[in-house]
Amino acid sequence: MFQSIKSRIAPTPSGYLHVGNAYNFLVTHREAVIKRGGELFLRIDDSDIDRSKDEYIRDIFESLEWLGIKIDHGPKDLVDFKQNFSQSLKTSSYFEFLKKVPNLYNCTCSRSFLKENSCPCIEISLPFEKHKTAVKIDSPHGSFILWRKEDLPSYHLTSLYHDIEMNINFIVRGEDLTQTSIEQFFLAESIKDQVFTKAVFMHHPLIKDAKGQKISKTSGGKTPSRESLISFREQGKSPEDLIQSLGFESMEDFLLK
Q1: Is residue 169 a contact partner of residue 29, using CB atoms and an 8 Å limit?
Q2: How far is 166 from 7, CA to CA, in rounded Å?
Q3: How far apart are CA 202 and CA 169, in angstroms?
């Protein structure tokens, strides 16, 4: 039986979007919508509340409109997002989802300690204490956090929760998230999920700066960097200009490849 394609764009509002984000959006739109006639969801990953800013969320909507990418499901603007879609509204749901995962353990180790030592917490039974312990899972690919010491869910947990909730079956990510996909697949298998474990994954090459480094939203600090989409817009440039900066002759040329 034919299964309709459902994909998503999932930016993190920790800075102004850049050309690497635009590339991911356009590739996702091309592969999921144009080539396969699928539906496209918008999910804004704002679980890191300390780094999430309203201006960065607005930038997501403005960038998608500028790129000409139509979203089928998800928030329509900043107000709609904050009232109905913010991950801060779902904390209790994430914690209930966490309870479905087997073989969890609590850990008090710091990152600096783990750089030099093996974690002893997996061998002992520590109680969960907010702001003192992180909840982790051990896998063949290493251990990773599902609930942070700040009493917040991790990206692994929230991302998987929403992909399952939205029945996402076609996921396009940068190649830097290949390990993330592997770890989340293990997590989905551990809860016997039938959505994420059957999804199609594509991991595309990263867009890099003139020095050959991965472009980061934080590279320009609070001021938009030259690679940011807001800088393109403020200079009066078009999406065609951005496409050409990525090495394609035109938007049509990019979309047809």
Answers
A1: no
A2: 9
A3: 11
Residue of 65, 75, 81, 73 lying closest to 6 (CA atoms): 73
Instruction: Tell me which fold the domain 6-88+159-256 belongs to.
Output: Rossmann fold (3.40.50)
CB 105 within 8 A of CB 123: no
Residue-wise pLDDT for 143-177, tens only, equals 999 999 999 999 999 999 999 999 999 999 999 99
Alpha-carbon span 57 to 51, nearest angstrom = 11
Q: Which two tokens stand for residue 171?
A: 């996921």
Average pLDDT over residues 132-144: 93
- Helix, coil or strand: residue 29: helix
pLDDT tens digits along 11-27: 999 999 999 999 999 99
250 pLDDT higher than 80:
no
Cβ within 8 Å of residue 32, ≥6 positions away: 5, 7, 38, 39, 40, 170, 172
**In this structure, are strands 39-42 and 6-9 parallel, antiparallel, or unpaired?**
parallel
How many angstroms separate the CA atoms of 245 and 127, rounded? 52
Q: Name the packing angle between helices 19-28 and 54-67 (round to 10°).
A: 50
The total number of residues written for the chain in this structure: 257
Strands 144-148 and 152-153: antiparallel
Q: Where are the domains of the chain?
A: 6-88+159-256, 92-153
Closest CA to 164 of 24, 48, 37, 41: 41
